[in-house]
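User: Second chain of the day. Same drill as before.
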Amino acid sequence: MKYFFFLFCLYSSVFAQDAFHNYGSMQIHGATMVGFHLDLINDGDFDQNSGLVGFYGFDKSLSVSGNNNPVFYDAEIAVDNGLYLNIPIGVTNNVNLIVGDVITPRIDTDIFANFMENAFYVGENDVSLIDGYAAFTNKDTFTFPVGDDERLRPLSIRSDEIDPLVKCAYFYEDPNAPSVFGKSFQTQKTASEYMKVSQLEYWNLKGEVSTSVTLTWDEWSNIGVLAEYLGDLKVVGWHKAQDKWVNLGNTNVQGGLTKGSVTSEPFVPNDYEILTLGGNADMVELFDTIELDNYYMTPNGDGKNDFLVLDGLESSPHNSIQIFNRYGVLVYSKDNYQNDFDGTSNRNMVVARDSGLATGIYFYIITMHDLKQRHQGYLYLSLTQ
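Assistant: Same format as last time:
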């Protein structure tokens, strides 16, 4: 039966059959490999599979439709002009993305490519990605291989617990004029006058468990208009209840101006309509930058130099501080700093949060919003005295 099915696909392709239409109960067993060179219409049972299902289309597109959602074990996508999903599909083991996007209608969040349980993928790149909604079931970490046309724009999550279903899509468009949401996410409507929101792109993420999100940028993201320093970048989200953009934080930032990533504090995705990259408003970029004295810290509990005490901080209680190690990695940040840094990192992906930093030289930047100034300098942290 399995060999007949494979030959039928080849025969149908040769004689220009419009599609393979499954009405019955079909399974792929063992190491069987089945190739679709034409559209699949699934109106029967097509799950509990093992083996490989491939979609192959040279210089054309293919589609999957029908009344029942197929679930594959391994899947392979090599369709030059894209595999269009009109119904959800599931994969329980591996997806090999070779060439051509998997395309779902962004207008319908119930149609997606679902990576189930332990499923994973390989081969994602700018010409082979999920153009539309990708999803996973029953995981707590995952990177969505989403993008737009020929531009991979992944989003990664790390949840506090197993999430039953999470969906994600990327949109390369201005959130002020979105294509499918029926409302404007006005980038000037922010929780803080000092926050700036990207007008070039955003992600839609749906999930019910507290989650930290890592957003990426590339040269087309133009992050230079958002922040002068990488440490000023943040994840921002349009809060459904507040109906405005809010700061979701920055627990880690990596990369450079043309490529990198920023990770948020934990939040519940379903509380937000969309997410994007944020930075500082233009007024912050125009602040005067003043060199401060260098500081020496010995946080050993003897009451001397145990904290980073910055001169003149009382003149600007509305402030934000960032501290970097000698490699430029952000190790500490805080809004409304009150001279309470004791050499302990509060960044999750650098060292363990709440762990003491190593002896060495660090660079700090403090933005004093009340004074419209930025102060920067160095501190030496010593744990030996």
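The domain at 287-381 is CATH 2.60.40 (Immunoglobulin-like).

User: Great, on to the next one.
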